[in-house]
User: Fold this.
Amino acid sequence: MKVAINWGGDAKFVGQSGSGHEIVMDGPPDHGGKNLGPRPMEMLLLGLGGCTSFDVMSILQKSRQNVSDCHAEIEADRADEVPSVFTNIRIHFIVTGENLKDSLVKRAVSLSAEKYCSASIMLEKGGVEITHSYEIRSKE
Assistant:
């Protein structure tokens, strides 16, 4: 895997993925930015959320669950001192569908957390406490 980051002036950076996509990252005005894109640490959380959501949906689809929506809400705390690393991350899934089995949703979230999500497993090995929770909603 390979990416490139190019400085765009002030606190703006453009990331280019190896798969050919670009994303703008920028800082807040009080750090010299113009708020033109997400912060780099937000990107890290977005990557984590994408990784674990991909796993959960893949497992649920293989389990033949009729999922109509999967939403992940992620909150994180950071250390007060520099480096301001993540200390605690909470991931909450809201899975919507018809006749979803609680045991299979629980299994999908657990497998992602413990076996498949490279991002969360890597962060945990670095000392970040990560908790996972879920709720199931019926499709209306």
